[in-house]
Design brief:
About 30% of the residues lie in helices and about 25% in strands. With about 300 residues, the protein is of the alpha/beta class. Helix 1 packs parallel to helix 2 and helix 4 runs parallel beside helix 5. The radius of gyration is 20 Å and the shape is globular.
Length: about 300
Amino acid sequence: MQADKLPTFFEQLNLQLTEAPNEVRRLFHGRGRRFEGLEQLTCDWVQGQLIVAIFKQVDELFIETLKQGLATLSESDLWQHKQGKSIVVQHRYADGAPSEVVLGELESQPVVHESGLKYQLNIGRNQNFGLFLDMRYGRDWVKENSKHKNVLNLFAYTCGFSVAAIAGGADQVVNVDMSKGSLAKGRENHKLNQHNINQVKFLGYDIFRSWGKIKKMGRYDLIVIDPPSFQKGSFALTKDYKRILRKLPELLAEGGEVIACVNSPQVTSQFLIDGMKEEAPALSFIERLDNPPEFEDTDPEASLKVLRFK
């Protein structure tokens, strides 16, 4: 990346911060490749905290120019108006993705708002802080389309889809994820929103070894599939996704719907469309949900794909 391109970063940052609602929000998405020389840089607004992530090692000039610009921002009227508290630079390319606090004090477990719902994040220790911001419209769709439904949330992570579904009036959500720690955070997210936990199940299992348990709680009116692109020893997207699609006919209720997601730049929407035709031909492709505008990409097929089938 190029230090002489950073004025573009700060121009966009000021513009987006000015317009940002009082919610968690992506402010700069260099990975959409719309800003030459800044392709490995992102910036998120975490309601008072600015989290700048660098995805590829850069030279000292870039770091110093970035920090100087962030210091200037922290002295601006805009920063005061937005009640900015801290600025963190996360080195995502480095082992452990270390975070460097360049202003104020990091609040590592803030509670943030999105579309009227609350989520607790975990900043500074992991590559991901507990809520994928590009999935906002997906969570909104689930919230708007879950009333009185039995919902299955595969690869649930911290249960963002589950929170949205219960908020939208779902009768039950079954969350499945190998990480019991992530599911515990999901339980806390439901509690933050004062949801009835009796309506929510948390299954800390390997999905491929647990179809029997999953089937017992079906059939499902809505199934959400949002896997990682790769998880060592447990999931490889292009190899394992079809194994899930194959199970859909025996899990879905009549008239049921599927939200199938993929977030690998190497895998296109057509992979899911063709895979569904092959493994679950009774399901028809309906639409691809939009991504939030702040995640615009020069190649839409390289960004998050959220596809709806029925």
